[in-house]
Design a protein that fits this description.
This protein has 806 residues and is α/β, with parallel strands linked by helices. It folds into four domains: 289 residues, P-loop containing nucleotide triphosphate hydrolases (Rossmann fold), CATH 3.40.50; 113 residues, no CATH class; 182 residues, no CATH class; 110 residues. The protein is built from 20 helices and 24 strands. The protein has an eleven-stranded mixed beta sheet with strand order 2-1-15-14-13-3-12-11-4-10-5. It starts with 8 loop residues before the first strand and ends with a strand.
């Protein structure tokens, strides 16, 4: 095989001729072509899984994170990478009955399989070093929502608001609300019509909470369904659209989900956060395999809708790019994107197909059922990998879709080719290429053990092949890029250090007139409220730095518990309050009781000292701390975490690399094209000179024969023709030398181009290897305007014997 380790190129296999015999020319697929999405179609046994695994392996080596949706359990094999490929590596994944059928011991059978696997890798120019490179490039993690076999994903812990990019886009917010409501209704077996009254109620409840910046737990949602926070749905009263009795039935259905013994598995594990699925805390890319083979149809539909909606939100929160940023690979698309029906999964997939390319996110969709695909939607796909198809109906449906997507396709010729494709051979039809290519897939580096059962997925963790990622307990990545504003804890956990259960309650305390007081809003439907006193500081702060390109104004709100002692208010221990000053109210909830005020000075002088300390802390400990990458001269944005900044730097480096690579290829391509013309010209000259030489030889032979037989040809004529023939031999030799020189020049150009590409590769930096510096942007006294400094009464309620934020 010729060199296949080229920058930004995925090594998928080798080209084949019309006879389907493998050539020595590798099939290299340009990574940037995936931003226009790809579809893999082929019947069972066509080799779709191998092609998909090869593509994901190449993406990982190139530093591109991949989110894999795995309905059958096949893609968990990506975790089975063994640089040495010993029998002991493969033995846990082999079926003992297969060894018995071979009439041999399992360990012997494992050694035979390992030997065959090593030979298979070698036959495609791969070895243990490349497998090790794959393992180091990206961590493979197998997730199992609704199960603890792999790394669980928490989906039903809460319905958190989407990011600001979605909240600020009415169309995006409407899609997210509809998807969340219909998927939840599907999970509990209710009508999923987006215009149905239950869907409208759920959408309204979620919309109300999200626009207030609140996340809804399932208990909150159940209470809100019974007593909605909105009075109207459209122009009609809630009670008219969906009476209280029907709301109670819906609340009971959701409550049954909460009471189900299997519910706990949906609340444990990693949060459903696309950023955390795609990247480690260090910024290193991840191959996240989300296996759903163990879920029921309703559970699959619910989870996939939530997952696809999260991907849409994450994608829209990125900046635009022409380089490949991430891949979402969906194996076996059956039922997710049908041509007529409207399952909840269809809308977010359509959105991604239409919009994700602008953000560098590529979709790869695989299916064995062409008739199940909405080809109008898939007209957005720029690449089609087509394998063997089972029926003429499948083939015709595919050709119709291809013709609709690209009128330039020669459907007749392609149809004949598809009908005769052998196993593991595909037609690559791309809008980025002038004509289709035939290729056979390479030997993959991951051991294909077949679909992994739940027991085998659990074994991955036991053998250290599926270690939970750092922070898998659910802790969020700390964002040190903005130490001035501590990361906000979940609303239910703010200020629990007050241990309110130990404090006696009573009537509302009397507060001196120079000390302002407000009441934090309670969650809708909360009851048996007790208020506890905290000090709230709110200020508008301007951060400016021409050196670091910062000009940012923001509202800083901090909440701290006053304690008895010399320094009653310690702002360095403050937390975000979890509510905006504008949402605070002037009066407490009716019937609430109050904890006593702390034993601290409440004089006017003391309150002024709290304010002065607050301003001083904002100018010092509250200064904006940002990251800087000196190599690329980039500075993190206010609020951007270290992980996000490392990923952004890596993406900027990829964009610069792709641009430089395109220029390099363009520069060399002109020279190579010129040399190719010379090669062709000299090849034609060789053929022409050889024809002349052959003709001359015939003439000389005829002249010699004529002279010997007493013909008209003289010996001098024979000599002249022989001399001319000798000259012709020299002409052929010189043409061959020029042809050889041109071929050599082409090889040298290719070698020089590859050398420059390798230099680009050496200069590539992984996110976790970036050497970052910390810069500080401190506001001056003129940049700080305190808007509020006073008491904030925070409501708590007792649930299951614990005091939590109401």
């Amino acid at each position: 095989m010729t060199d296949f380790e080229q920058l930004g190129a995925f090594y998928l296999g080798a080209r084949v001729g019309d006879d389907f015999k493998r050539s020595d020319e590798p099939l290299l697929y340009d990574a940037s072509d995936l931003t226009t999405h790809a579809v893999i179609v082929g019947m069972t046994g066509s080799g779709k899984t191998g092609l998909g695994v090869a593509l994901i392996e190449e993406a990982a080596i190139d530093g591109v994170p991949v989110l894999v949706v795995d309905p059958k359990g096949d893609m968990g094999n990506l975790a089975l990478t063994f640089p040495d490929v010993e029998g002991s590596d493969l033995e846990p994944w082999l079926d003992p009955s297969a060894a018995a059928r071979e009439g041999t011991d399992l360990s012997v059978y494992a050694e035979e399989q390992a030997k065959a696997w090593r030979e298979g890798l070698a036959s495609w120019g791969q070895d243990g070093a490349r497998v090790e490179r794959l393992r180091r490039a990206a961590l493979v993690t197998v997730y199992t929502p609704g199960s603890t076999a792999g790394v669980p994903i928490s989906v039903l812990r809460s319905f958190a608001p989407p990011p600001p990019a979605v909240l600020g886009d009415p169309e995006a917010l409407a899609e997210r609300l509809t998807a969340t409501a219909t998927s939840l209704l599907a999970l509990i077996g209710r009508d999923t019509d987006p215009l149905g009254r239950e869907s409208l109620l759920l959408t309204a409840v979620l919309d109300h909470a999200w626009k207030q910046g609140r996340e809804l737990t399932l208990p909150d949602l159940i209470r809100s369904l019974q007593s909605p926070p909105v009075k109207q749905l459209g122009v009609l009263d809630v009670d008219l659209v969906i009476p209280a009795a029907d709301r109670t039935k819906l609340a009971l259905a959701v409550n049954a989900l909460l009471a189900s013994p299997s519910f706990e598995a949906w609340t444990r594990g990693e949060p459903l956060d696309v950023q955390r699925l795609l990247y480690e805390e260090s910024g290193r890319p991840r191959v996240a395999v989300v296996t759903i083979s163990h879920l029921s149809d309703a559970e699959r539909e619910f989870f996939l809708t939530m997952l696809f909606s999260e991907v849409v939100s994450w994608t829209r929160s990125r900046t635009g790019t022409t380089s490949l940023r991430a891949i979402m690979y969906v194996d076996e698309l059956f039922g997710m994107l049908p041509p007529v029906a409207e399952p909840p999964t269809k809308r977010p997939l359509l959105t991604l197909l239409k919009q994700a390319r602008a953000f560098g996110v590529g979709l790869v969709l695989s299916t064995q059922n062409p008739v199940d695909l909405d080809y109008k939607a898939l007209s957005n796909a720029g690449t089609w990998f087509i394998g063997r198809l089972q029926t003429e109906r499948d083939k015709q449906r595919l050709l119709d879709g291809l013709k609709a997507a690209s009128g330039a396709v020669d459907v007749g010729a392609l149809g004949e080719t598809i009908s005769s494709l052998p196993k593991r051979t595909f037609v690559l039809n791309s809008v980025h290429s002038s004509r289709p290519a035939l290729f056979t897939t390479r030997w993959v580096m991951s051991y294909l053990a077949g679909p992994l059962s739940r027991e085998q997925i659990a074994k991955l963790g036991q053998l250290g092949l599926n270690a939970p990622p750092p922070g898998a307990s659910g802790s969020q990545v700390q964002g040190p890029a903005e130490a001035a504003v501590p990361a906000a804890p979940p609303p239910s956990q703010v200020a629990t250090a007050a241990t309110p259960a130990a404090m006696e309650a009573g009537a509302r305390p009397i507060v001196p007139p120079h000390l302002p007081e407000v009441f934090a809003p309670a969650a809708y439907g909360a009851h048996d409220i007790r208020y506890y006193p905290f000090v709230l500081g709110v200020a508008d702060v301007i951060y400016r730095s021409k050196t670091h390109g910062v000009d940012d104004e923001r509202r800083v709100s901090l909440l701290v518990e006053p304690v008895a002692g010399h320094a009653p208010v310690e702002w360095e221990h403050a937390e975000e309050p979890g509510f905006a000053l504008e949402t605070a109210v002037k009066e407490p909830a009716r019937g609430a009781d109050f904890a006593p005020l702390p034993e601290v000075q409440l004089t006017e002088k003391a309150v002024k000292e709290w304010r002065d300390l607050f301003e001083r802390w904002l100018r010092g400990g509250g200064a904006l701390r940002l990251f800087k990458d000196p190599a690329y001269k980039l500075t993190s944005r206010p609020g951007e975490s270290e992980q996000e900044f490392r990923i952004r730097c890596a993406q900027a480096a990829r964009e610069a690399r792709d641009a430089e690579l395109a220029k390099l290829r363009q520069r060399y391509q002109g020279k190579i094209d010129a040399v190719d013309k010379r090669v062709m010209r000299e090849a034609q000259a060789i053929a022409r000179e050889q024809q002349q030489l052959q003709a001359r030889a015939v003439n000389v032979g005829a002249s010699v024969l004529g002279a010997l037989l007493g013909g008209k040809s003289s010996l001098s004529t024979v000599a002249n023709r022989a001399a001319q023939g000798a000259k012709d031999v020299g002409d052929v030799q010189r043409a061959k030398e020029r042809h050889t020189a041109a071929l050599k020049e082409r090889e040298e150009l290719e070698r020089a181009m590859l050398a420059e590409i390798e230099e680009l590769q050496r200069r590539s930096v992984h996110p976790e290897d970036l050497k970052l510096e910390t810069v500080v942007v401190a506001p001056t006294s003129r940049d700080v305007a305190v808007r509020y400094l006073g008491l904030a009464w925070v409501p708590f309620t007792q649930r299951n014997g614990r005091w939590e934020r109401a």
